[in-house]
Automatic annotation (TrEMBL):
Parts of the chain that traverse the membrane: 12-33, 45-65, 72-90, 102-123
InterPro entries named among the record's database cross-references: DoxX (IPR032808), DoxX-like_oxidoreductase (IPR051907)
Keywords of the record: Cell membrane, Membrane, Transmembrane, Transmembrane helix
Top-level taxon: Bacteria
GO cellular component, one term: plasma membrane
Pfam family, one: DoxX
Lineage, highest ranks first: Bacteria, Pseudomonadati, Pseudomonadota, Gammaproteobacteria, Cellvibrionales
Transmembrane helix keyword on record: yes
Subcellular locations according to the entry: Cell membrane
Bilayer topology: Multi-pass membrane protein
Keyword set includes Transmembrane: yes
Record's protein name: DoxX family protein
Amino acid sequence: MDNVLTQWRPRVLSVLRIITAFMFMQHGAQKIWGYPVAQRYEFDLFSLSGVAGVLELAGGFLILIGLFTRPVAFLLSGLMAVAYFMVHAPQNFWPLANGGELAALFSFVFLYFVFSGAGEWSVDHLRNQKA
């Protein structure tokens, strides 16, 4: 059983990366386009929320396809840490009470991708095989 689990590890890492990126991109799409759920405020590219929306959508897409995974994941991990400490933590210490569970979780999952890479099903993997 250990052999099967070990053999599938890079593929399951890819699935985790793809699902995480898809979920993350929805936050950017909501900020920029008001889709799939309308945003409560008008989109302004030159605001913190606007910059975050662009990074969430564009960075999320790069993570989704597994291109430049490590540096993009580092950037997004930092973005989510900043979001947590600027927006959520001042409201309450506990993530459940301050609504920051997703920001904290995204931050640590992206930090994991910095160290793990993209996995087998990724553009990064294809690029490394050709090199």
